[in-house]
Amino acid sequence: MRSTRTPAAPRHGRRTHTLLAATGLVAALALTATACGGSGEDTAADKPGATTSQAAEGKVEIPAGIADKLKEHGIDVDDWEAGGWKDWDKAKWLSAAKDFVNPVIEGLWKPERMQSAKEADKTVSTKDAAADQGVSDPEPAPVEATAEKTPYHQNAAPVGKIFFDSPEGPMVCSGTVIKDVNHPGKSNLVWTAGHCVHAGGSGGWYRNIVFVPAYNDLGKSEAQLGNATASEIAPYGNWWADWASTSNGWIQGGSETGGAGAAYDYAVLHVKPESGSKSLEETTGALDVDFSAPSASEVATMGAWGYPAAPPYNGLQMFKCLDQPGRFSLSASLPAMYRIGCTMTGGSSGGGWFRVVDGETRLVSNTSIGPTDNTWLAGPQLGQDAETLYDNMSKTYGGQ
Question: How far is CA 115 from the centre of its chain?
Answer without folding.
Answer: 17
